[in-house]
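Kindly go through the following sequence and its C-alpha cells. Advise at your convenience whether the C-alpha cells fit the sequence:

___
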Amino acid sequence: MEPFSIRTYFQQDHTELDDLLVQFQTLKRSDYAAAKSRFVAFKFGLQRHIVWEEDLLFPAWEKATGQTESGPTAVMRREHRQIADALEALHRKVQAADPESDAEERALLALLSSHNRKEERVLYPALDGTLGDEERAGIFRAMNELPEERYKVCCADH
C-alpha cells in the first residue's frame, strides 16, 4: 500500500459501512436489538465518512485544483444531502423498531452505490495523485482528531 493512500483507506471504510448495513438487514427480522446496534454503528460511521470528506478531502481537492462550484466536489456535496435524507428515512424506521424498511434500504443503497463508485474511480485516485505525502498525512491526522460530536448526531440534528 502506498503511504497514506486516500483511495485504499476510504474504499475500506465504504466496505466496512456496507458490511454493517448488510448485518442490519440480516438481523432485523430475527434480533432487532442486534440489528439496531449495527444500524447505529452504520449511521455514525457514514456520517463520520461524510464529515471527513466535506471537511478535509473536498477542501484539499478544491485548493489543489481550484475547482469548487463546478467541480466534482460540488456534485458530491449535493449527493451527500440526498444520502443524509435517505439515511434519515431509514433511521425513522429503526427508531420505530419497524423491520419493514426494505424500500428505505433500497433507496439508500442506490444512492450510495452510484456515489461510492464515483468517489472510488475518480475522486480518491485523483486526490492520491494530486496531493503530496505530507498533505495526505495531514488529512489522516485531522481525521483522527475529529471530535465525535461532529458525526455522532442523531435524528436529523446535523
